[in-house]
Amino acid sequence: MKIIRAKDYKDMSRKAANIISAQIIMKPNCVLGLATGSTPIGAYEQLVEWYRKGDLDFSTVTTVNLDEYKGIPKEHEQSYYYFMREKLFSKVNIDPERTFLPDGMEPDSEKACNDYNRIIASVGGIDLQLLGLGHNGHIGFNEPGMAFEAQTHCVNLTESTMKANQRFFASIKDVPRQAYTMGIKTIMQAKKILVVVSGEDKADILKTAFFGAITPGVQASVLQLHNDVTIVADEAALSKAECHQA
To answer: Could you say which of 65, 136, 142, 165 is catalytic?
Structure first.
């Protein structure tokens, strides 16, 4: 596990974007596993800037996203499809046919999950998976206590996760109660993993997840077992971690 120390959010975003862009340059037809949420936005903005300068070409890149709410159509402004289109896909030359998310409008959970597992297998697996880190250690929507061996599955969102997402909706009643998410097994099969963490409010969980015991109670802790993980975190997020930072 490699820790890269950043000064602040902007520096973290640039350093993370450097790693993603290097993957695209080294393997133009790579498969990127992408994440939503506020933390990756700065990295996406940096990638868009480099694309506009002519430094990056997304034309043969394939993407698979971590998760999608169940029961929300693509056009809904809080869907993760909408998020990815607004933050990245509509601003670079990526082929829409090469961008994949779980089908949130598929009511049959087993079918939705099996279909997404087949898509990930059909593109040859994930070269680089981007992750954020939840306050309770969740990655994707894999909440504390879930089995590490799970592939794509439907999850019932915890109250804490729903409250964290409430700010994006009119009220807590509008927040979806379920989501489709890549499981830990799928994430761990990625060749490389990049975790972005920002803010003092993530300092405790960063320390617990990456320097504590490996336990399903802290889903991100399993990343300690992967052979190619890079954590890019700002000084605030690293403030409680006793480690050597690059």
So the answer is: 136
